[in-house]
């Protein structure tokens, strides 16, 4: 394909500039906050939360100012031109305060999880009218002699109100674009406005008929939902858009270059509303009929990463054995230039994990990494991710401190556990006690999660999204109340490897080599190794570390990994039939936040430093090459990890950019997948660049890095996260 760099640089630069300006405009939230507050105050007599939410949705759709930036080809951005009067400002203040004071019982509360993908295939191919007809059919069948039907009727009414509001919003876009075209004197811009208006002539009420129209409607839905505080992801765009692309190409209505320009526009728009929130898009894998999805659009969506050079969308690849070799080469070429994307997921392992969790075979074929690495079945799920973040090192701290924290607050337990002041007889008894404490930490967190799910079921709603998530209409139930097919909750364990390395250090230093006692080690952790740098370096350098193919550490890693999964299987929440919990091993930015409030740890980590952020070696501890990391983590059944597993590798620019380095990276990715590992992501940036970027951030505004599942600009990150990335091993070979 010849789609890379086909666009003029001036055009690309203009689109990038529009994305930055629109995304960071100081007036972005002004009108939206006012309309939301006004609608909230005006719907105060509505008795049912989902109907109130639907009416607020429509108030936004019917009144939001539609603005289009000249030069962009996809409509839908935050309004900038609204200036509130003193009276409107007072109303905004009162309404916003009322929403805040009302809390989850206000009727405003969204059931969005930020990790859902709508059924775009249905919307694009059948139109909203078919969904509205389905809702009408369900409404007409309501039988008030049945105990649940009144509640179902409320759901259907709310979804109908919101979906009709969305269609009216589209009509307003159509009319506004015609008005802009009528006022425009520049013939090129006038023609672009008219082309954009045509996309809204019938859709989304009617089915889409072409690629441009379909892509616009996808963006229109994402933008519209964002106005409702309901984040929706793009999903498998190369799959559901390809029939429109193929048809237009065959009819001579579209060229590959034109399609690519639209995709670049689409990427730029993602950065306007999501900013650093990773809006996910996945390519490749298979479709619902188990047919490989590797097509021209797959390649365009990958190439657009380099063309735009922006942090959004968060593009990933669902790797299969039949991935075209040239496409994997393209991925590595882009990664080698420091773009941090795409991340690459092992389709076979992810699908196995989903099926083991109860997802049917067809649904398991179409999933996405929802933002970071969390797995979401497309068009049929209401996943809660990172709920909550649990720091396992607090269990170790509890035992070392004999029930007292070594730093900060104590960990939350479902019941107190008495820890004897006597030394433990052996490592196994100590380790068992740590696991017992961890089990109580998990129990407390899962009890909280169960009440959280119940709260969402009773008081949150998302009537618009629910119309486009299966099986909400069939069940007559909001997605947030259990109407979605799959309602997994994914607790996340930042610091898992920190805990494993700490246990390995305790086994060696305390029980095997008897360098110090447990009480002495607890004292070192409590005082942050003050005046004990020699012992700290012993713990860092002389004790086994996970991620180096060392069975003494890896055995602990496997046991604790299996233990966490087993503990989560003991619990269920109230949302739907798939109300189960599944672990995740990434961190977003929480490894930094949790590290700030955790004591120093027996692996030699100092208080305040970030915890481990991924399933791999702790920062700087992968001493046995990247292959050693893979051999360690491959001892774990990673299909358990549908909550999300991130495995980070960092390579030097000189190695990754060389022909030899690129070939090695391609083979390394294949090896990683063959070893049944879950996901791989890369940083290609030299140590000197990172150090200079920390010292001189003004010179590196666009330097991208992989954090702990997602990409961000290095200068956006908190100092402890910057330091954590700098500490990661920079490999110069595989």
From TrEMBL:
Per the UniProt record, the source organism is Leadbettera azotonutricia (strain ATCC BAA-888 / DSM 13862 / ZAS-9) (Treponema azotonutricium)
* Superkingdom of origin: Bacteria
SUPFAM superfamilies, per the entry: PFL-like glycyl radical enzymes
Keywords of this entry: Lyase, Organic radical, Transferase
What GO MF terms are annotated? Answer: lyase activity; transferase activity
GO cellular component terms, A-Z: cytosol
Protein name in the entry: Putative formate C-acetyltransferase
Q: Which Pfam families match?
A: Gly_radical, PFL-like
